[in-house]
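User: Show me a protein chain along with its predicted structure.
Assistant: Here is one chain, sequence first, then structure tokens.
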Amino acid sequence: MTHKLRRELMKKNMKFQILTVLVLAMLVIVSGCTKVEDDAVTLPVTETTKPQETVENTFGKAIEFEVVYIDDIPLDIRVEIEAQIIDRGYYTWRTDDGMTYLLISSGEKPTGGYGIELISLAEYNGVYKVLVGEGKPAADAMVPQVITYPFVVVKFVGDFEVTEVADESSVVFERFAESMVKLLTVEGEYQGQIDNSSIEVKVGENYMAFRNYEFDSLLEGIETGDMVTIQYIVNEEMQNMLYSIEK
């Protein structure tokens, strides 16, 4: 083989190798583009993702709910909540306007730093389930050294019963028994304060004492002899705990 022929063959081989490298490079680029598209499809759900588009397909049919602050809860429900949150569990109340209130409580905790939130409420083949997240303070966290009662209340529209509540570790919350604490209402004649935390009201022929620790604001505009309507509960010590008083 002559030198000229050998050089021609080397040139052809070089061109073939360059072409091969270019083809491989194009394949890598195409593969890379495909990977980016795949990643875009499987990205985790963010706060801006519509929940109905993701939860419905993976975790059942999502049900809309709204977190409610304690002061925005009807008073008759609120007094039952305050009695129940000392224990771990859940309970629901349905109001005349078709709204359902759901309480989920972690129970009594020795310090601050604990928390609870409702992650999802969804329907699974006719079964209505709730998933909650619970948090606790780190071992070295600086937290208030007081007893706390973490709980969350949400409301939603729907004529159905929640049948299962569990946290992310699949620990189930038991449904509370119906609360024995009920909001009572009486009308009578305001007699005046007994002391800083007690007042007296004449109801019919009887005199009743009611306790509260915020009478400075509750008694504004109310004077001895006024006819008043009082809402209260009877606590475990058989004391009448006043929640509201109006002329």
